[in-house]
Design brief:
This protein has 314 residues and is α/β, with parallel strands linked by helices. The chain is built from eleven helices and twelve strands. It has a five-stranded mixed beta sheet with strand order 4-3-5-12-6, with helices on both faces. It has a three-stranded antiparallel beta sheet with strand order 10-7-11.
């Protein structure tokens, strides 16, 4: 049986802050005799002296300081638990996990996160980056509650609701010094198979990873994010399709060359999605916030840029 109680820890904390039993009694609206009894009982149960009595004032012993140091974590955790229980009773989740495709920088949600914390302080928020099919899988596997910017159609079988938020066009590009930059006419599979493709790793664990336009047996450099893919194509280490938003800037700066291809990558639709039949105040807040017009345009402002390509340029 535990010899510590939250009430005893609360009294020890109040005594330490107030400097005396009388100050703690006033703060906690208790009579001084109750404070003295609780401390005496605690010391007896633990078999240690918690306070040194110095006239009317008291000070923590070494054991008392250790007790209070750890005890304050317990008091905070208990207070947080009380708040979360009240939130759950009122419809707010204790935690919400929000998935974002790794193509987009997480800073795009900074204003939304700040607004969310203005509404609730007790729903813990967790942001998760996934890539390609990994966003859909994370949703279906319950690793996230909502995904923003999930690319392409979701997997068959349902179990989720999706809302299209925008489309991206793609540009095939290579660095000016890459051998493919000098090849005339549209590039076909025979041209591409002799060179390295740079691809973003699909973060799916169970679903089949997505690949686009690769020739069987072709050399590939697999990188974790679209920013890394962009960086390595600027460095001339391979070829691939890039979002038009970031490719055009690099092409205008002379850092990339656009090439026509016989098999262009079609426009891709991106989605906001959540599991069917689930609700909660936090989930509804984010559904409304991220389903509003203009969200995809904000996402596109956080695509890879030349300004972010510092490490490989240096």
């Amino acid at each position: 049986m535990l010899r510590l109680s939250l009430e005893a820890l609360q009294i020890v904390d109040a005594i330490d802050r107030g400097g005396s039993f009388a100050a703690a009694a006033r703060e906690l609206f208790r009579v001084p005799s109750t404070i003295s009894y609780t401390v005496g009982k605690l010391e007896e149960e633990l078999g240690v002296q918690v306070f040194e009595r110095i006239g009317p004032r008291v000070a923590l012993t070494a054991a008392g300081r250790e007790l209070l140091k750890e005890g304050r974590y317990l008091l905070k955790a208990a207070g947080d638990l009380e708040q979360r229980v009240r939130r759950v009773a009122s419809g707010w989740e204790t935690e919400l996990a929000l998935g974002l495709d790794s193509m987009f920088g997480a800073a795009v949600l900074a204003d939304d996160v700040q607004a969310f914390y203005g509404v609730t302080q007790q729903t813990r928020l967790r942001l998760v980056h996934e890539a390609l099919g990994g966003s859909w899988e994370a949703l279906l596997e319950r690793r996230v509650d909502l995904v923003l910017g999930a690319p392409g159609d979701g997997p068959a079988g349902g179990g989720y609701v999706s809302q299209a938020i925008g489309q991206l066009r793609w540009v095939f590009a290579v660095a000016p010094g890459h051998p493919l930059a000098q090849v005339p006419g549209p590039l076909g599979r025979n041209d591409l198979q002799h060179h390295r493709a740079i691809v973003v790793a699909d973060s799916s664990r169970l679903l089949a990873p997505r690949t686009v336009g690769l020739v069987l047996g072709q050399d590939t450099l697999t990188v974790p994010t679209m920013q890394a893919k962009f960086d390595y194509q600027l460095a001339g280490l391979g070829f691939g399709f890039l979002p038009e938003h970031c490719a055009r800037q690099a092409i205008a700066a002379g850092l990339l060359v656009e090439k026509a291809v016989e098999e262009p990558k079609p426009e891709e639709t991106f989605y906001l999605a959540w599991r069917s039949g689930e609700s909660g105040a936090a989930l509804r807040w984010w559904q409304q916030r991220l389903g509003a017009p203009g969200v995809f345009e904000r996402l596109c402002r956080h695509l890879p840029t030349v300004a972010n390509n510092q490490e490989l340029q240096g």
